[in-house]
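Re: duplicated header lines in exported structure tokens

Our pipeline writes sequence and tokens for each protein into one text file. With two proteins the header for the second block appears twice in some exports. Here is an export where it did not happen, for reference. First protein block:
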Amino acid sequence: MMAMLMAINIVNGNYSYKRVPNMLKPAVKEQLILMDAEDLIIE
């Protein structure tokens, strides 16, 4: 649930992937890929 919310915020431009906690990065990355937004995965 938290990963999906962070992914939505990243897509909307309110949050960057760099700021995602390391524990959630794999789940957020998966969500971004499912949302066809893998170009936003910048570390």
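Second protein block, exported in the same file:
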Amino acid sequence: MIKRYPILITFVNKINIRSYYAHKKLGLEVLSEFEYNNNQYYEMVYDERFKSQE
């Protein structure tokens, strides 16, 4: 599945701190922050192409 989908992107609501830390523990990084419908979000990304080169 990594070859077909090497990049994972997800959104985490800033009030859901447990989810934020769970995603960080899995290796996701914050790409940006944004607001939608009066809620603040983190856009988090995991790029397997970059990780496999380390």
